[in-house]
Amino acid sequence: AEALVRRQGPRMLASVDRLKENPVAIVAAGLACAVSSPAIFRGLKLTATFVKRLTGSRQARIDAYNALHEEEDASKRNADYQALVDSYYDLATTFYEWGWGSCFHFADRRGAESFSQSLARHEYYLASRLAVSSGARVLDCGCGVGGPARNIARFTRAEVTGITLNQFQVDRANALSQQEKVDHLVNVVQGDFMALPFEDDSFDAVYAIEATCHAPDRAKCYAEILRVLKPGGFFACYEWCLTDAYDPDSARHRKLKKDIEVGDGLPDLVHTSVCSAALADAGFALVETRDCALDGGLDGGEPWYTPLTPSWNPLKWPRFQFNPIMFYLMPKILKAAEFLRLVPDGTAKTQVMLQAGGIGCADGGVTGAFTPMWLMVGQKRSAASSAFSLRYNAHPPRLSPLRANRHLLVLRDSAPKSSPPRP
């Protein structure tokens, strides 16, 4: 600290000498330094922005949203999926940006990666499955506020169109793209991926990151993606799924499933096999299916659910809010803010709903009953590329030998070879 002060000049050194004689001043100075540190200053700035953006009335939709989850049967939620998803993201988007950033998905951390670096690497890995280059037209299904779309556009130089059901996210995504000076590569539109507003064969590639889990009918959703994809093009996605470890007779597993559905705006959470079968039923030729969550811990890193586990360190956000004291205090703090009209009514209920979803996801990760990154890669068949799998399987992803055989899907197709993407 003194070395830092010396660089600031003699005046500050004199201030340090005065501080040494006054313990109260030392405490005050310590707090001032904490506030002025980059991490805490950024956190305070984000919190101020968060409170400012909560001044709208979107949180008033929380009661209507909760009502959709009162029944155990998912049929009502599937029928009203548009209202469910739209109201959820009206409620959640501002909280997500505050606590997570603009990339609304999970990723394991490897080696000395920062949180943001791990998210970008996870996105680039998926983009590597698309076989696209500069100028290609790519669709992001369920793009949120466009964080991954902007990263992938910069990474590939492709022109990315994002689609989301929620108009608030559309406006926010396009504003951020303009702010980050990538609006010439990324454009977000409002629409439903169950009925995509695009012509047939419009895109060279399509991807979805933890988004099509909101679809009430996976096969219909994937069929729409197939329709707008050009022949020979690839679709790659990370799906939220229950795994083989899920036990429907376990009260703990049933609770985490329900918490995830309620806290994350899902009509229903299904098994990995349901999603893989739906992709094939939609007409895709399957290239690869595997659980990327099993890669967690590579290079001495952390599993994907670590950010949702409790921490007493206030610099470890969002983990800090999951410790017992903050878990108890946060709803009361927000309720007081509602009373003082600093934030709109429903903010505290929204935070409780999202926090429960985070706890459900974390428990799903700990038990292994849930994965947010079931990787699926499919190709739209064409006359020239109906047997892409032969060459793909000659160059499988770089997995450990045990997992390469377990998770790579080898297809039985005898047509000529094509040129699928290599990792």
Lay out the secondary structure:
Layout: H1 2-8, H2 10-20, H3 23-36, H4 38-53, H5 62-68, H6 75-79, H7 81-99, H8 115-127, E1 137-141, H9 147-156, E2 159-164, H10 167-179, E3 186-190, E4 203-209, H11 218-228, E5 229-242, H12 251-264, H13 272-281, E6 285-291, H14 324-339, H15 347-367, E7 370-379, H16 389-394, H17 401-407
Parallel strand pairs: 1-2, 1-4, 2-3, 4-5
Antiparallel strand pairs: 5-7, 6-7
Helix pairs in contact: 1-2, 4-7, 5-7, 8-9, 11-13, 12-15, 14-15
How would you describe this structure to a colleague?
The protein has 423 residues and is of the alpha/beta class. Helices cover 47% and strands 13% of the residues. It has 17 helices and seven strands. A seven-stranded mixed sheet has the order 3-2-1-4-5-7-6, sandwiched between helices. Helix 12 (251-264) crosses helix 15. The chain is globular. The model is unreliable at 1-9, 386-394 and 396-423 (pLDDT under 50).
Helix and strand pattern: HHHHHHHHEHEHEEHEHHEHHEHH
Number of helices: 17
Detail the poorly predicted runs.
1-9, 386-394, 396-423
Helix content: 40-55%
Strand-residue proportion? 5-15%
List keywords for this structure.
423 residues, alpha/beta, 17 helices, disordered N terminus
How would you summarize what this structure contains?
With 423 residues, the protein is α/β, with parallel strands linked by helices.
